[in-house]
Design brief:
Helices cover 34% and strands 24% of the residues. A 7-stranded mixed sheet has the order 8-10-7-11-9-12-13, with helices on both faces. The protein has a 6-stranded mixed sheet with strand order 1-2-3-6-4-5, with helices on one face. The protein contains 10 helices and 13 strands. By secondary structure, the protein is of the alpha+beta class. Helix 2 (62-78) packs parallel to helix 3, helix 2 (62-78) packs parallel to helix 6 and helix 4 (170-179) crosses helix 5. The protein has 2 domains: 9-149, PurM-like, N-terminal domain (60s Ribosomal Protein L30, Chain: A, 2-Layer Sandwich), CATH 3.30.1330.10; 161-333, PurM-like C-terminal domain (Phosphoribosyl-aminoimidazole Synthetase, Chain A, domain 2, Alpha-Beta Complex). Helix 3 (99-116) links the parallel strand 4 and strand 5.
């Protein structure tokens, strides 16, 4: 198990997968490494669920931090193909967070949920000694709908096109540019522009747009382990090979510049808000056009083939050993290290 970040596939298989409580017949999609959500059957209705930590970064400003936090939580259920509908959220807050600051966080979460049609149904809120930013709780997002409308996380098929939104490392660089603007040795215009990209990351609405536009067979948000990690997780889940053309992957010159300055590999850096989407080739153009119409960068970066693994420009790859953004974050937190 790594010191920081998500557990490995091997740890999941050996320590978690064999011990999942009662084996109930109403669970149609259960826990699997790299899978964003599970599904329960409730009298013929599908209930998709995803649980994530709640991260509040005060230096973003509490309104912006609250909106960013809830979007990350809702994204993991949005990739089921169902619209997020309900949220349960628990806060274990540090004592230094005052009432007005919490009110700002909560107002942002309420506004985002109200706009998306998400009802907050239960939760827990308290201050506790020993709690600290950014990890201040956990939340479970839910989506209710028809089983036939579920887009399975292992649904990619040979022949499907692979569509990527936004691009690699956008979240990581946007966060660092927002949190540590004075520590990044780069032109201020570039830092400011990349920082502003954080507000455009919206995997929930992008997932909804893609599903409405065409025949999506699988979706996965690009979080820890970055694009390379997401490719491996999604390909392994479906039992297919992903063949990717590096030149087709969306690239933002300012994001790339910050990655170079920070010494961060953009292919293995978290990019929450980016979606990896498998699409029936008959629908690819419609899905890409719909995403671009709402202002989201989207491109076809490869295809699914029979086989296994991830091939970049004809060369086989291994899953990343970790997320390249974590050591950069730690160094920026403690520049004298």
């Amino acid at each position: 198990m790594p010191q920081t970040g998500k557990i490995t596939r091997e740890f999941f298989r050996s320590q978690i997968a064999p011990k999942l409580g009662a084996d109930r017949s109403d669970v149609s999609i259960g826990p699997k490494h790299g899978v964003d959500f599970g599904v329960i059957d409730v009298d013929g209705t599908a209930l998709a669920m995803a649980t994530d930590p709640v991260s509040i970064l005060p230096d973003l400003g509490f309104e912006r931090a609250g909106r960013f936090a809830v979007r990350i939580v809702l994204a993991d259920v949005a990739v089921s193909g169902l619209d997020p509908s309900h949220l349960a959220i628990s806060f274990s807050l540090p004592p230094e967070l005052n009432d007005d600051e919490f009110a700002t966080v909560w107002g942002a979460i309420h506004d985002e949920c109200a706009d998306l049609g998400v009802d907050i149904v239960t939760g827990h809120t308290a201050r506790y000694a020993g709690c600290s930013f950014p990890w201040v709780g956990g939340a479970t997002a839910m989506a209710v709908g028809d089983h036939d409308d579920i887009i399975r996380p292992d649904g990619a098929r040979p022949g499907d096109d692979l569509v990527l939104t936004t691009g690699p490392a956008v979240e990581a660089t946007a966060l660092f540019a927002s949190l540590f603007p004075d520590q990044i040795d780069c032109e201020q215009r570039v830092v400011d522009r990349v920082a502003a990209l954080l507000d455009d990351l919206d995997a929930v609405r992008d997932a909804r747009t893609a599903v409405d536009a065409g025949a999506v067979t699988a979706m996965h948000d690009v979080t820890e382990g970055g694009l390379l990690g997401a490719l491996h997780e999604m390909a392994a889940g479906a039992g297919v090979e992903f063949a990717v053309d590096r030149a087709s992957v969306p690239a933002d010159s300012d994001v790339e510049a910050l990655c170079d300055i920070l010494g961060m590999d953009r292919w293995s850096a978290t990019s929450s808000g980016s979606l990896l989407i498998a699409v029936d080739p008959d629908s690819t153009a419609d899905v890409v056009d719909a995403l671009r119409a709402r202002g989201t960068t989207a491109a076809v970066i490869g295809r699914a083939d029979a086989g296994s693994g991830v091939v970049l420009d004809g060369e086989s790859t291994e899953p990343p050993a970790g997320d390249s953004s974590w050591p950069v974050y730690e160094a920026l937190l403690d520049p004298g290290q």
